Amino acid sequence: MLKKSLLLLCVALLPLSALAKSNDEKRQEILEMRDEVLEKLYKSNPETRSMIKEAEGYAVFNSGGINVILLSAGSGTGVAHDNKSGENIFMKMATGGVGIGIGVKDYRTVMIFHKRSSFDNFVDKGWDFSGQADAAATVDEKGAQASGADTVVSGVSVYQMTKTGLALQATLQGTKYWKNKKLNKQ
Q1: What is d(CA 130, CA 28) in angstroms, rounded to the nearest whole number?
Q2: pTM of the full predicted structure?
Q3: CA dist list (Å): 57 to 12, 60, 72, 144
Q4: Domain assignments of the chain as residue spans, ordered by start
């Protein structure tokens, strides 16, 4: 009976394992997201192309967030790129905060690190505490948004773009970024 149960369990889970993406596929997906986000950023803010080229490094994240009255939370994945070494460092992020608001949104964040110490601290320690005011209503990249995001980290420029969502919020956020151990293994 136990053997039959284990066999049935293995057969049932087999299709799920086939759907799981390999680490190479996940890395490629993140790099494609980065390239797409940077092209949109360059189109809307042409000056950022030279800012990124001259910077110590930059990071691009795709994130999802929800805000329900007084609490907000979100998570995402991304990549930090070291312009000096050419290395890509795959990362994760999670955020939580308090403030007034309501909504759900899928957004992209680009951080440009103008100082070496800012880039190194971000990659190694990964904290950012920021304030955020946001009004967004977009579906399939159509709609309007007005947002402002700032960071208390010196030497970093931050750009945030809403991909889809509906949100109206003013929050104080704490965000933790950390290296993705699985995706940084070769």
Answers
A1: 29
A2: 0.75
A3: 45, 11, 29, 29
A4: 20-184
Query: H or E stretch including 49?
Result: helix 47-54
Q: Which residue has the tokens 């997906």?
A: 29
From the first residue on, what is the mean pLDDT of each consecutive set of 10 residues in the chain (186 residues)? Answer: 44 49 94 96 93 97 82 91 98 86 81 94 81 47 44 75 63 84 88
Burial class (CB in 10 A: 0-12, 13-18, 19+), 126: middle
d(CA 123, CA 121): 6
Q: CB of 134 within 8 A of CB of 147? A: yes
Residues sharing a CB contact under 8 Å with residue 167, sequence separation 6 or more, in sequence order: 65, 67, 101, 102, 103, 104, 105, 134, 135, 136
What whole-number distance in Å separates Cα of residue 34 and Cα of residue 37?
5
